[in-house]
Amino acid sequence: MKPSINRVLYVGFLLLGMYQALISKDYMQAAASLGIGLAFDPFDPEQKWNHRPTWQKAVLIVNLGFVAAMFGLGIGLDSR
After folding, report:
1. Predicted confidence band of residue 2 (pLDDT cuts 50, 70, 90)
2. Which residues contact 50 (CB under 8 A, 6 or more apart)?
3. Rounded distance, CA 80 to CA 61, Å?
4. Sign of the alpha-carbon dihedral angle for 78, 9, 1, 48
5. pTM of the predicted model, to two decimals?
């Protein structure tokens, strides 16, 4: 896929995940959407991880952190 299509899909899944978390309060679906968004690397997917700039690594790691947080919220709030 072209990187421009990946960016559109990445941002789309990010927005969907934010909507599901903030408006719908469906944290498990938000975790799934944010996680699927990671599959569409918004940067050059051909570039190896070690050769990426630090800010690109940080964006992807922060996104993964949000996936973990939404997953934790989904499990934690569902166990009441």
Report:
1. low
2. none
3. 30
4. negative
5. 0.86
